[in-house]
Amino acid sequence: MENLLLWGFYVMTFYAFLPGLVSRTFGFRVFKKGMAKKEIALTFDDGPDPVYTAKLLDLLARYNAKATFFVVGSHAETQPELLKRMAEEGHIIGVHNYVHKSNWIMRPRTVKRQIDRTNDIIEAATGKRSIYYRPPWGIVNLFDYSNLGHMQIILWSALFGDWRIRVGAKRMEKRLMKKLRPGEVLLLHDCGRTLGADVDAPANMIAALEMYMEAAKARGFSFVSIDEMIKLTDQNRTVRLPLYKRIIISLWLGWEKVFHTLFRLKKAGNSPEPAFYYRVITYKGPTMPFADGGQVSKGDKIAELHFDNKLLSGIAVNSKSPIAAGLRLLREVEQALPQLADEISNDPDAQDIKAVYGVTMIHRGADRLGFEIVSMPEGWFAKASRIYLNLLMKVLTNPRTKPNEKRRKTVISPRILLMPAQILMNYTAAKINKVTEEAERIGEAVERKLQQAADDTASLGTKTTAI
């Protein structure tokens, strides 16, 4: 019996206690506090509540504040209209398990089912799945790091005991005022229908939060959703590379300018620093079929894609981890595709292209944007690409991070990205429909396709010659 208890203690220590301690203490594989100048992130757990969530949304709207809601699936299932309103008003919806149960007492497969079921509910109401997850009580188990590799775990920098009604609005206000600082990720609760909470406790929270938001407004603070806080943190994190790396990057970016001039690459969009460049060429490789029929054959015209290396290097160097870099790259690609589609649709040289084509070093998640991922034929080009990309990753990788070698090799394995021209043109149609509001149903359908890219936050970059 003593041995059994001892083994049980060992298992729980490594399965539950140590992962939670490491995450909370060192921030391993989680985001819990931002780096910002005048921004604060409000996050709300356990909802939606049929009474208090609506009141909270009204309050946020009055202050033009954006927030993040980590919903319990069993609650969200009965409140699809509240989920839809959250999304329509610009808030982020995250997952907080289907039932409010600790990951310590659930098997990894059960945790995954809880998350997937809640994400299905979010998608049914809003048209998109979430990439953000907050485990109940912030407790993770050993397998959450690998099992949730496609999701960003969000913890917090401050919590206030607002689930207890006896705390009261005045005491809550005092506690909040102590955290009137930029970069804070505040944990509050818009629902009191979970174990240990008081049903009407959110009333005190909302009253205290209104006073807090008024004080924040007077001091020039703004409230942002968690994705914006992550983006600001990445931008504000400064990394000083060794001199030799800075020289190599400067030479690399200089060569890119020469390459753009020699091969007459065109910008995708009017931005001074677009995410994409392209050129129209005649395809000379082996026949590649499309998943839904059709193919690209030797002699067909295609648009060859190039990801802007200056933007890529900035993201890679200033991101805390490969996951953070992947999230930022995914956002950049998602925002750039409509501009690319507009540019190609108006380019006389590109009117009869069969597809857009590129080679990516980081390809997971590209299929969610409409790309087809194709293995590169073995040969000198594939081998040279692997060698080049390995060297490039060593130069660009943040020196504070040491990615697993096996995982790094998998991530940077080159793949061909192929998108049929008609799929790309859907992005143009979506953009026009959003502007004119003449075909809202079509616009929403295409937007869902875009947002589904968030299922996989692994890194994504496109570059034919370099990246």
How is this structure best described in words?
This protein has 467 residues and is an alpha/beta fold. It is 46% helix and 15% strand. It is built from 16 helices and 17 strands. The protein has helices at residues 2-26, 52-62, 73-76, 80-88, 108-126, 144-147, 169-177, 201-218, 226-236, 243-262, 309-318, 322-345, 380-396, 405-411, 421-436, 440-451; strands at residues 30-31, 39-45, 68-71, 92-95, 132-133, 152-154, 158-159, 185-189, 222-224, 266-267, 276-282, 288-289, 295-296, 301-307, 355-360, 372-375, 415-420. The strands form four sheets. Strands 2, 3, 4, 7, 8 and 9 form a six-stranded parallel β-sheet that branches. Strands 10-11-14-15-17-16 form a six-stranded mixed β-sheet. α11 (309-318) packs antiparallel against α12. The termini are far apart. Residues 1-19, 399-411, 435-440 and 453-467 have low confidence and may be disordered.
Features:
elongated, disordered N terminus, single chain, disordered C terminus, 6-stranded parallel beta sheet, alpha/beta, 6-stranded mixed beta sheet, 467 residues, 16 helices
Summarize the structure.
The protein has helices spanning 2-26, 52-62, 73-76, 80-88, 108-126, 144-147, 169-177, 201-218, 226-236, 243-262, 309-318, 322-345, 380-396, 405-411, 421-436, 440-451, and strands at 30-31, 39-45, 68-71, 92-95, 132-133, 152-154, 158-159, 185-189, 222-224, 266-267, 276-282, 288-289, 295-296, 301-307, 355-360, 372-375, 415-420. The protein has 467 residues and is an alpha/beta fold.
